[in-house]
UniProtKB/TrEMBL annotation:
Organism, as annotated: Neokomagataea tanensis NBRC 106556
Membrane-related topology note: Multi-pass membrane protein
First and last residue of the signal peptide: none
Protein name: Uncharacterized MFS-type transporter AA106556_1058
Transmembrane segments: 15-40, 81-105, 111-136, 148-170, 182-200, 221-246, 252-273, 285-304, 310-332, 344-366, 372-392
Length: 397
């Protein structure tokens, strides 16, 4: 029995001690969700496509950082990777604060926002990858689903908490409102994390006589699971990138609260039904999840009322909730203990790329058609994911 397979009395308690760092990073990710695209379009005067690009840059950076995160977790251990992720998150918050202060210089402010989003994407990749592998090492491979599920609970719980807080901060009186206060809090939270993590003891990388798994090999290993995940990620991107603008177009209030409903439902489903992955099988859970997500997105596309938008966002959150762990437990364990970081990084790339592309492509759809077509396009992608998941289930059978 290896060190990472040693049983522990309370896996959840051990997971929570480390997943705190991921929670802090994702609160920072959630803070500008109901603010950023509106700031870029209304305050700085840029188009919907540029606003979508500003949002999506975070996920492009996360995508680019995944290979290095997985490789360093396997070779150096997870704690140093998490520390660097928190430093990148701190730099993102400082840049966001600067962008808010320089709103009277639109081009410069936008450039600094782009820089902030790149730092935040780096932070997300390194912190999330490091925290998951660190927790798997702490609780053993039999509790991999516990580590991944709680990571998701804190991730999207952080977004659900950060979105309304960011919206409230944005409405403060000048000079404290807007991106100024959002950026200030975005710098304070990772600084707190850096202070706390200094008191933690890390785990050493697992010894291995084999060569590290090349990233391309890891990518091929998890490709079908990643593609199904990516199809569901388009719907998440539609909600995260454009729900605030969707509310703005219809002159509704409460976008931040709707994003909170999305996150709260996500967390509740993950908390209550994560055990179904082991009982029903990952592919079956993915099929149900994508079906629920498709219904939620279709509701947003066809019914344009505040109540329908809340229900649609809730269904989308419920559907997306179990998708990552349902397919991720199977995908990550295929690479073996010594290459778990590489496999996790490769698998996670698919959701990064899906969300990054959705900000650009769905923004174009909005500009050349309308929000109905945008949401229905995302719903269709979920249906494609169902087909891939069915094929995965049949293949495993």
């Amino acid at each position: 029995m290896t060190a990472e397979d040693t049983p522990v009395t309370s896996p959840t308690q051990r997971v929570l001690a480390v997943v705190l760092f991921n929670l802090l990073v994702y609160i920072v990710i959630g803070l500008p969700n109901a603010v950023l695209t509106i700031f870029v379009q209304n305050t700085l005067g840029y188009s919907t496509t540029i606003a979508g690009l500003a949002f999506s840059l975070q996920y492009l950076a996360t995508f680019a950082a995944r290979p290095s995160a997985g490789r360093l977790v396997d070779s150096r251990g997870p704690k140093p990777v998490v520390v660097i992720g928190l430093v990148a998150c701190l730099l993102s918050g400082i840049a966001m604060l600067a962008a808010g202060l320089l709103a009277h210089l639109p081009a410069l402010s936008l450039s600094i926002i782009f820089l902030s989003r790149l730092f935040l994407g780096w932070a997300e990749s390194w912190a999330a990858t490091g925290v998951i592998v660190w927790n798997i090492r702490r609780v053993g491979t039999k509790n991999t689903s516990v580590a991944i599920s709680w990571n998701g609970i804190c991730s999207y719980g952080g977004i659900a908490l950060g979105a309304p807080v960011g919206a409230a901060l944005a409405h403060l009186a000048a000079p404290f409102g807007g991106l100024n206060s959002v950026g200030g809090l975005s710098a304070l939270l990772p600084l707190l994390g850096l202070i706390i993590i200094a008191f933690y003891t890390g785990v050493k990388p697992l010894p291995s006589t084999d060569k590290p798994l090349p990233f391309k090999s890891a990518l091929r290993l998890v490709f079908p699971h990643g593609m199904a995940l990516a199809m569901g990620g388009i719907g998440f991107g539609a909600i995260s990138s454009f729900l605030a603008l969707y509310y703005e177009v219809h002159h509704w209030s409460g976008a931040g609260h709707t994003l909170t409903v999305f996150g709260v439902v996500f967390v509740a489903i993950r908390f209550l039904f994560a055990s179904q992955i082991g009982r029903r099988g990952g592919a079956n859970v993915a099929i149900v999840s994508l079906s629920v997500e498709a219904v939620g997105l279709a509701l947003l596309g066809f019914v344009h009322t505040p109540i329908a938008s809340v229900i649609g966002a809730a269904l989308t959150g419920a559907g997306f909730s179990l998708l990552f762990p349902a397919l991720g437990v199977l995908a990550v364990n295929r690479a073996g203990p010594q290459n778990r970081g590489a496999a996790l990084g490769a698998y996670s790339i698919f959701i990064d790329l899906a969300i990054a592309c959705s900000g650009l492509l769905l923004g174009q759809i909005i500009e050349y058609s309308n929000y109905t077509i945008m949401f229905l396009t995302a719903a269709f992608c979920s249906l494609v994911g169902i087909g891939i998941s069915r094929a995965l289930g049949q293949r495993r059978g």
